[in-house]
Write a structure and sequence with these properties.
- The chain has 254 residues and is mainly α.
- The model is unreliable at 228-234 and 236-242 (pLDDT under 50).
- The chain contains six helices and no strands.
- The protein folds into two domains: 22-159, Helix Hairpins (Orthogonal Bundle), CATH 1.10.287; 164-208.
Length: 254
């Protein structure tokens, strides 16, 4: 019982390995079957040639028997014409034996010819089938290679599809996160750069208000009266005195 189970398990593993080898490269398996069939057909063709040689030999034997029958028939007739019945009877007996042998050989020749023609038809049919099988193997090989190439292209296209489920998609998402982080830092820096401006502006406004208040208090506190003149009331700038030619020459000599 134990050995039986072990044997079955061993055969199962062998079958598993065989199936794996069979499915690994079906084109190679098909090519192997084709080559084996070609070898068998080649052996069958050699046997058919040998059989045809036998048919040819039987054909020559039948032709010889026919010639012998015709020869004996002519001798019997000749001796009967000459009145030699004893010799004619002797050749008549040989003629009967020759005719019987001729009939047997002709029957054998017919059987051999029929068998040869049947085998020839089978060989021709097998040759045609092998030719179709060869074309089918070539077609399957081309289709299998094309399908493998299409599968590789589809796999490549999937790898370059920037989807979040792929490595490239994750890398792209990481890059986009970094870009968003950098932009956020820049936005925060811009927001922080505006801090304090309101205080500075308020301080300037406060200083200006204090200056105006101090000026008003100065004007109201008994200080010298200052009349602010407008642009029209300001005295016009006096024109520069004209320098004579002698003074210019003296100045140049200096």
């Amino acid at each position: 019982m134990i050995f039986s189970k072990m044997w079955k398990a061993f055969k199962a593993q062998i079958n598993k390995v065989s199936n794996a080898a069979w499915s690994a490269d079906p084109i190679a398996q098909m090519q192997y079957e084709y080559d084996k069939s070609v070898d068998e057909l080649r052996e069958g063709r050699v046997g058919l040639e040998q059989y045809r040689a036998l048919v040819e030999r039987v054909t020559r034997q039948v032709a010889g028997d026919r010639a012998q029958v015709n020869n004996l028939d002519a001798k019997v007739r000749a001796f009967l014409s000459s009145g030699d019945r004893d010799t004619a009877a002797k050749f008549a007996l040989e003629l009967q034996k020759a005719k019987k042998a001729l009939e047997e050989n002709e029957e054998q020749l017919k059987i051999h010819e029929e068998a040869y023609n049947n085998n020839l038809a089978k060989v021709k049919h097998a040759t045609g089938k092998l030719a179709e099988l060869r074309q089918k193997i070539q077609k399957y090989d081309a289709d299998l290679k094309m399908s493998r190439a299409e599968a590789e292209v589809a796999k490549l296209a999937q790898n370059f599809n920037l989807d979040i489920t792929t490595d490239f998609g994750q890398i792209e998402a990481e890059i986009q996160d970094k870009i968003s982080l950098n932009r956020a830092k820049a936005r925060v820096a811009a927001d922080l750069s505006g801090e304090g401006l309101d205080d500075i502006r308020k301080d300037k406004e406060m200083d200006k208000a204090l200056e105006q208040q101090a000026l008003r208090e100065f004007e109201q506190g008994g200080g010298p009266e200052v009349k602010v003149k407008g642009p029209k009331e300001l005295p016009a700038a006096s024109a520069a005195p004209e320098i004579s030619a002698t003074a210019r020459a003296t100045e140049a000599a200096r």
